[in-house]
Amino acid sequence: MTDTFALRRYGAGDVELLLDTLVDTWADAHAEQPDVADAGFTPDALRRQITGHARRDDFTLITAYADGHLIGYGYGFRCTPAYWYGKDLLPHITPEDARTTDSLAGICELAVRPSWQGQGIGAHLHQALLDAMRPRWASLLAMPGAPAQQLYQRLGYRYAGPYKSGPQGPVLDLLLLRTDL
Predict the structure, then answer these.
(1) CATH C-level class of 6-178
(2) How deeply is 11 buried, as exposed, middle or buried, from its count of CB atoms within 10 A (0-12, 13-18, 19+)?
(3) Is the pTM of this model over 0.85?
């Protein structure tokens, strides 16, 4: 293992060629978290999610490579508060600017292979996503109690409410970050 890594930015048109490697990286990053699969988050579900999100023109993917191997990635896209928060949660988002903004990025995935975790790669991926999308607000969903919550807290995210994507979906923590302070 090397102590250096390189970041690379991709767009929606690049996803098809990278999809298998992205899914493998995600599965490796979550291998020791059985609650992820129990909540319905599986490699097949991720494959459908990425493919669907990559249809957006504003889709942004940032990857981290070391010695030519993918060691982590993050992706997201700019969206409206109504799309991201959903009609039930939208009226409860505070501050008001976070629910009325025209500058919101939804961060959909941050995944780093276990042997590379704890080395700042997730923070670098996150910052590269923000630099590429330049939103006023960023939001993401996280499993309550997940180890990644520590990273999100260090990055400045704050809890904005419970989020449930559907009647059978798990309840996730909706986290919010003001990026232009």
Answers:
(1) alpha beta
(2) middle
(3) yes
